[in-house]
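<context>
A single protein, sequence plus fold
<sample>
Here is the protein in question:
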Amino acid sequence: MSSASDILAAESLLFAVLGVVFSVWYQDITSAIAVMVETHKPDRKPAMNLVNGVVITKALPLACLSLLVFLTFLPDAIDVVSRVISHLQASGLDRISHYDSVSVALVVVSFMSALLAAYTGLLLLSLWNVRRRLRA
């Protein structure tokens, strides 16, 4: 098993890459979510093409990659939390002197990764709802 600092470095690097991709694609995703649904179906084709393109090339890959990064490091974060709980149960607050900031950072980055995965999933669902309205 890798050390906590190696795991944190890998997770942080992937989270940073996702953050950059998210920031570059966010405007396109939110613009597609805000698209107006025209009254007449034939007038909806350009909006439908835009939404489909954003779903396929940006929102879906971003949501899948965010979820993959979160799930990849979730077992390590759970391991850290379970060790802290068992140490606290065994020795109470005396274990606080053995504080490990790298392990805490690993859990924090994992939590932030979970939030990014959830948010990108919500953006994808919003796009699916726009797509559904455009097809109606």
